[in-house]
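Hi L.,

As promised, Phage holin family protein:
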Amino acid sequence: MANETNRTVPDLLGDLVQQSSTLVLKEVQLVRAEINEAVGQVGRGVGSIAIAAALLMAGLVILLQALSAWLVTMGLSTALASLIVGAATVLIGFLLLRAGVNRLRATQLVPQRTVHQVSQDANLAKEAVR
């Protein structure tokens, strides 16, 4: 115990650097473990979404065929009924596509809060060094 209280400043600084490196290493390991777990969950979620999308598309095709057949029973020709159903489907799909693309603009994907926080941390570190 007496040996611990008589340590030199370089020894203490060396211990500080070593313990800080160990802390950072452990935090990086924790982040990796959490990311691996999250990636596994995302993979399972994507698989479920892919299966659901395939089933939904098949159901949509059947419903669109039924709508076209109904229009034929209402007196329209098969070609005209198919044209109406196809045009309406394409229009709705195009509008949904545009809305999705607008939501994915690159400026909206930048993690603004993280960038701001990192900038603040850097400024605080600069001030502490001065």
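Residues 9-75 form one domain.

Thanks again for sending the construct details.

K.
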